[in-house]
Specification:
The complex is a heterotrimer of chains A (208), B (250) and C (472). Chain A is an alpha/beta fold and 208 residues long. Chain A contains six helices and twelve strands. In chain A, the strands form three sheets. A six-stranded parallel beta sheet of chain A has the order 1-12-7-4-2-3, with helices on both faces. A four-stranded mixed beta sheet of chain A has the order 8-5-6-9. Chain A has a two-stranded antiparallel ribbon with strand order 10-11. Chain A starts with a helix and ends with a strand. The radius of gyration of chain A is 21 Å and the shape is globular. With 250 residues, chain B is an alpha/beta fold. Chain B has two domains: 116 residues, 3-Layer(aba) Sandwich (Rossmann fold), CATH 3.40.50; 110 residues, Rossmann fold. In chain B, helix 12 links the parallel strand 7 and strand 8. The longest helix of chain B has 18 residues. Chain C has 472 residues and is α/β, with parallel strands linked by helices. In chain C, 51% of the residues lie in helices and 10% in strands. Chain C is built from 22 helices and ten strands. In chain C, a hairpin with a 4-residue loop joins strand 5 and strand 6. The model of chain C has no long low-confidence stretch (mean pLDDT 94). Classes of the chains: A alpha/beta (208), B alpha/beta (250), C alpha/beta (472).
Chain lengths: 208, 250, 472
Amino acid sequence: MDARSEILSRIRRALHGVPQVPLPSGGPPPEAAAYRAEIGGNLVERFTREAEGLGVRVYRTDPQRLLEVVVGILRAERAQRVGVSERVGWMAPLLQTKGFTVGGADQAERVEIGITGADYGLAATGTLVLLSGPEQDRVLSLLPPVHVAILPEDRLVVDLHALFERIRPEALPSALLLITGPSRTADIEQTLTPGVHGPGIVHVVLVR
Amino acid sequence: MDQTWQVERPARVALFVTCLVDQFFPEVGEATVKVLERVGVQVEFPEEQTCCGQVLLNDGFREEAAALARHFVEVFEPYEAVVAPSGSCVAAVREFYPQLLRGTALEGQTQQVAHRTYELGEFLVRVLGVTRLGARLCGRVTYHPSCHLLRGLGTGACAERLIRNVEGVEFVPLRRPEACCGFGGIFSVKFGAVSEAMLEDKLADLGATGADVVVGTDVSCLMHLRGALQRRASPVRTLHLAELLAMESE
Amino acid sequence: MREPIRFAERSVQALEDARLREVLRRAMEDLRRKWSRGASELPYFGVLRDQAKQIKAHTLLHLDAYLEQLEARITARGGVVHWARNGEEACRLVVGICQEVGARRVVKSKSMVTEEIELNRALERAGIQVIETDLGEFVVQLDGDRPSHLIAPIIHKRREDVAELFSRHLGTPVDAPVEVLTRAARSHLRQAFLTAEVGVTGANFLVAETGSVVLVENEGNARLVTTLPRVHIAVTGIEKVIPRLQDLAVFLPVLVRSATGQKLSSYVSVLSGPRRGEPNGPEAFHLVLIDNRRTEILRDPELREALQCLRCGACLNACPVYERVGGHTYGWVYAGPIGAVITPLLLGPKASFELPYASTLCGACREVCPVRIDIPRLLVSLRERMVASGSVTPLERWLMRGLGWALQSSVRYRWASRLGRIVQSLMWGEGPIRWLPGPLRSWTRKRDFPRLAPQTFRERWRKRSWTPGQRS
């Protein structure tokens, strides 16, 4: 018998005649209602507070001033080489005219800042949600030491429950990434240190 | 197990004195009787009782523990309520007897007896609604809740309330009251070094309170603490909850 | 034949290491504080734990169906699922996949199950270089050491130890601060990520509904391991599967809050197959599902609950025994309360007969477990099996059976009581008991043993030698 058949048959024999335990229905428990409603009424404020609590810098702007805000971040970080994800690709030529050296995902290892979009934001935890795809790479939010994420405000939802209500399982891409704050470790004597493997500095620009 | 707290106060209770109290600390048994009589409960002592069997149960001797469980149920079945000066014994009865005797002829009776068995502190506070007994002790007092009372029965706060209400008591909590004292029955002998290390830290916390007296609900924990305190000729006393509550107002 | 793990002996050594004890004490107190914060901040945390427990219990009872669903989804998305009955089969499969793609170098993110099956050794024997990328595991690998905690592998090490190690291997200053050490590890390992052909991970969860592998981390190395190399191999036990994507909304908070007190870890990757028309990601995805005696545990209704473990480490942090002796004392991959359950189940009683007894059954572990595993009850079940299979010493069996016999009848009890007093008088006279014989002597090293009272309570009750209302 091959391993697969043997393992499955062992499982079936192990469970033969065992009484059933029902699967709890999905969705947030009723006890969470008040807590979640409070967040739901204050998505931007809550997201900002949670993200800032993790050391993330959060900005709020409108589409007309978005480029200006991004340039401000780049200048504050004293960056020259910038990687721009396809999703926000319209920024690339504009940043070039401002004097930055701009590349795409293939330059991720060589740039100082990676600029990406974001598909959702989770207010309860200050989390960015990135769904991989032809226009959303996995590396510009990972390899450079600084990550700038552009998140439309209307993509803020309460929490993971709200996120999974909106994502159809069949439509799941090869990578769904939840990013909550900078990369960090406390492995050495419980001392919190940012920027171990992923970006140590994260900026989020909320666009109205 | 979900404990149902009786609303009616039982007029008579059977005392389950526990083997450790019977053999080593009879004064704790006497104090328990005194305390119960003081709050108007008549105490009976079924002489056929022996031991709850938790040592056997915890060490994996299930059959032998089941035999003792059967004996317990047979002895205490006739009584409205059973009170014991021990959180760990009551936890053994309430949490384990029903599963030990499931599928046997005694299954139903075991459930009933288990529901009606109480540790002294929880009996006073939860069943009788008594939190003050007119006891008196002057001095600094701290409280060590036994793990089984705290986590098994979940009623560790009852004893604390009773202690705080004793006149003259200056209550100082332990730094980490929920930390295990390191006895654990046979563990104290099989893994003596670890047991000693846990006891050491508990004694350090005790010392830090400056308390003259440490009160507990289980003589197992108390004898563990006392054993070390005595070896070091420490002036700190160990007192069982019953003994504290039995102390008279002048 | 594996050497039995002598927990008592090892614990004595560990206790003598004052440095280790101090490091552990501080770390555990810190993690316990974080647990409290994480648990109390969410008002419905208890409800989530109940849900998590129920979902896991349900899943285990339908494990075959969920594994089949998982396999079908992964295959539909272009991944390959392999099944391994035991560790050797799993290692052969992983080595085989690496050899097929001509891999010379593998980067790994932390996985307890790969330690369980000793995967690194198998890869190295096949001439493939393995590089651990989790900072703690990287340190452990450099040092030839073993991890001592489920999620904090070098909790037993001080900064100075790591600094000294890095100065030898990476050329950093001898007493470098944590930031310098971290940066050195980052740049050293970055090269490995960029050049490895294969990335190997474990899996925190497998989602049956979508065929996904879920990786929970703070550093970002798991992301790098699953993004840069051409091939991703996830190695995991069969018990890691959960039914639906939305169940992550329950499991992620309970796992992360229980492990570190955070609301969410820095990165959670939900990976469903190789890349599809994307600029980066692996071209091939393999999942290796390992049994390795898990189906045996599944068969046992009393022990099945052990398979619900999320490997969060909360029980280690709460355990007074672990706090004092550290993870290496447990002698194998899994430490702490859950280790005392899993190691005997996976290695068998002969190799680990002391472990189920290395607990006072205080219940601190059960209080913090995100899926409410009743670890004390599991330990007692293991002890019962030891007794039933005749694995306890004759002396202990004789003593316990004798005790049980004496206590069953009140007549025998009273005789035993009288006998006890005769023995006490003969051996200890009237004074304090400062020594006990044989195996009991470790009690009296630092403690006096109480004396049997001159009269038992029942004797005094009979004689009513006190009156109500008077102190005795």
